[in-house]
## 1
Amino acid sequence: MLNLSMFVRIFVGLALILYPLLVYLGIKVFEPKAIGIGLIVLLVIRQLALKKHLKSETINPVPITLGALLLALLGVAFNSLSWFLFYPALVSFIFLILFLVTLKKPPNMIERFAIAMGQPSSKELSSYTFKVTLVWCLFFILNMMISLYVTLYETLELWTLYNGLLSYCVMGVIFLLEYLVRPKTNVSRE
């Protein structure tokens, strides 16, 4: 059964995934200040809903939430859309840092996901997931650079297309390729 906390987490998670589209549509109707207030409310609700689950989360959402809150507060203070456009690049930057840190302090991020999904820890798993974590780090670097470029130099429509669709397509391709390559390694898929 879906409890209220889980429903809120799913709703807010979807809203954050759809963030570029919501910003694009929202700016047609609302001032940037209103979008910022809406984002602040979503982030506070998300943090409250996640509060009791923070220790069980593989990726701590607090750095992303704090960064998003800072951008939202700046957007509200200056009533400027520009601050909201940096959110996707900020998310990629924070994920890059989180993934890089785990390369130095094992288990690496992908290994943490595998273990959380019931995969037994092993030397083969660590070696394989280290490489996959590196691939994700490269993706985050490229994604952040492209996101910053479209934020600074392109139209809102291209920003929305890249951050709201194309970057998700690239993530999907990485997931698919990793899934197709995984059986060729000695890492079981149980």
## 2
Amino acid sequence: MSHQNVIDFVERRREQGHEPPDLGQGSVLGVLPVPETGAVLMIVGYLVPAGGAADAPEQPVAALQRRAAAGEEELVLDRAARVARAGGEEIELTFREFELLDYLSSAPGRVYNRRQLMAAVWDRYDDEGGRTVDVHVLRLRRKLGRHAGRIVTVRNVGYKYQPARRR
């Protein structure tokens, strides 16, 4: 459903005399049947003021680990500059390595299987390519050095990002 179709859908609902949706709770913008499943995909949208996003301070640097103790190195991911730093020194990552680290660290402790990582980082939705994920994790761990242990293998499942424990 294109952007124009969504707008047309909302306008048709208004013309048919339906109340404007309560945008504070989200609006159902579309319902698409999923063939052969008996399920439907509901598209929900929220109205956000145009100036609201610009007024909010942007935080391009996501600290993956703050200093837990004096002298401990910090691992920082700067999304705006697409740079990872450990102890103030830049870690050179490829595009996919950065995307993989960014995706894993966006939800610390959550386990992702190889198929989920292929879909999110490589935009591939088939079962092939699991070894690609393994190879990229291996390369990423090598580059992270002391912080390699933060990418944890969950046996027979996949990988997760585990922040350093606070002391």
